[in-house]
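Quick one:
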Amino acid sequence: MENRIQKSKRPGGQLGQAATETMILVGFALVFIIPLALLFLSSSNSQLGQLSVSQSKATAQTIADTAGQVYLEGPGAQETIAVNFPSGVQNVIVENGLVILTVDSDGRSVDVIGSTFANVTGNFSGKEFGGLMKISLVQDGNYVNITSPS
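Output:
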């Protein structure tokens, strides 16, 4: 009679051991997978920050080049362009021949500069940046006024 009792307990003990071994294997797998996933996400965010800076350089230089063109056309010349501001742009400053975009890249602020020979001025205070934005450039005698009409 005692043999039957021992035999009936034995399969349950093996099931418990199998469950424990499975949990240990899953734990080891998670120990390796979680750091790899975090590394991948960190790398992905870094690449997005670099892409935002690159797009901001193109945007700043497009505005600066167009300002030079409008300046050369003479007083009264004007042009409206559509430029794409990446989502990380925080501020735009236009002064002394420079178009400066402040971009948030990987948690730090980076200034991206587009330069032109034209004397430029502009006001972008209170604007939300991110996506397409119309920019108006008007030659007012000695300088090009750069604003966003919207």
